[in-house]
Amino acid sequence: MIGFLQRLGLSSDRCISCGKVFVGFSQGYLCNECLGSIKPFHPIDYSNRLEYVVSYRVFGRYEGVLKEIVHNMKFKSSKNLALLLGKVIREHLWEYMEETKPDIITFPSLNLRRLWIRGFNHVEYILRGAGVPYMKVFKRRDMHKPMAFLNAEKRQKAVLGHRLKEELIDFLEDKKVLVVDDLLTTGSTIQRLAYLLMSVGAQEVHAYFIAKA
Ligand SMILES: [Zn+2]
After folding, report:
1. Could you tell me the pTM of the whole model?
2. Please, which residues have CB less than 5 A from ligand 1, an ion?
């Protein structure tokens, strides 16, 4: 299958991280060496407090192989890479779920512009890859460019585009919610989402990130 995809130009014959040509079986993205090298990073610096968030956990630092995966998943719109990443973080995420015991696991909604370009929400596919049941509680009302291209003021405006689905507002009362996202940078998005959840009576909000920039 991979060979067929490679001939069609839909899959590479080189590892996206180290560039080595694949030898033997591979999923088409990473050589087994690079794949095996992805481990939770210790120690992550948790001194940055996130407002409205009771606790948060980060899988790794945004560098090396992990950075390559996240970058390729987003900019090459690869569902398979998102599923693969889900498998990589699976154990680490489930451990955190055991600790926090959330009633609901969810993720930020993409703005329409990004969803049109990418065609899918990568965090949703990460959760599928990790075998985690999720519920979509957020929606977006804006068309901003990716946060990375925005200055501080525009970022602040962009995060205000996040909304809760009105039909779920009653349901969220007294619930423990875990929000999963790919990157922790300034924390402005997660703080906005946690604020929304707490404002409708959620009991507590926890957060999980694939990587910390
Ligand atoms: Zn490699």
Report:
1. 0.89
2. 15, 17-18, 31, 34
